Amino acid sequence: MSYFCAKYLIEMIMKKQLLAFGVGLLAAASVSAQDLSTIQLNTPSADRGKSIMMSLRERHSDRVFDTKELSLQDLSDLLWAANGVNRPGEKKRTAPSAMNKQEIDLYVFTKDGVYKYDAFQNTLQPVASGDHRNLIAGAQDFVLSAPVSLLMVADLSKFGGADEHSRTVGAADAGIVSQNINLFCAGVGLSTVPRASMDQKGLKELLKLNDTQVPMLNNPVGYPK
Ligand SMILES: Cc1cc2nc3c(=O)[nH]c(=O)nc-3n(C[C@H](O)[C@H](O)[C@H](O)COP(=O)(O)O)c2cc1C
Questions:
Q1: Close Cβ partners of 75 (under 8 Å, ≥ 6 residues apart)
Q2: Considering the domain 33-222 in this protein, what is its CATH number?
Q3: Where are the domains of the chain?
Q4: What is the model's pTM?
Q5: What are 16-45's pLDDT values in tens digits?
Q6: Angle 30-154-166 from CA coordinates, rounded to 5°
Q7: Ligand 1 atom closest to Cα of 193?
Q8: How many angstroms does the Cα of residue 130 sit away from the middle of ligand 1?
């Protein structure tokens, strides 16, 4: 074997090993939720925040956030305000929904992973590990500095399908959840902005959504900077 032939073979083997190493790294960083645990949320605090009139006065969009993590109590209260259970006996929620279908699912994006809010168990259920906030950000990088982003996904199968009427109603219900978030944040001094922009395709792939589960809106949330 000539010198050049041997050198070529060695280079090929090294490239293959590098490729295998790269594939191994990718597999290790895969989006399985196995390394995340269920998070038990706190009981919502009944007596915090400004009056409803002051909260409405303070409500505004923020696009700058402190990167500090939200405390468990703030996250718990935020989710309860967004779409928690406020009448357990009737299984009803802080946000109204068309025909009480309760079709808005809330996903919580953090630097560690993505969770789904289970309002009835008051828990966060792991969905995907890793930082996927870039899918919420889309082209707006300011979103990456918010420690938490809440994504509202309308499960239109609860209306029988993703026809135009169901989409309109699902969008309206998502808007109400988003406004609960906006008002809660205004009332307790957190920063947020309601957003329709996001990487729809990437989110559908990550969250394994079907055609009747539609990402409608998101709210990055953090402490003011
Ligand atoms: C349905 C909806 C979608 C929005 N989408 C975005 C968005 O993708 N990006 C963004 O920066 N702001 C978004 N906003 C925020 C608006 O730009 C903002 O509410 C508006 O400029 C008024 O400012 P204010 O919220 O401070 O009153 C959205 C607001 C709504 C209601």
A1: 41, 108, 148
A2: 3.40.109.10
A3: 1-30, 33-222
A4: 0.88
A5: 554 444 444 444 444 678 889 999 999 999
A6: 140
A7: 15
A8: 27
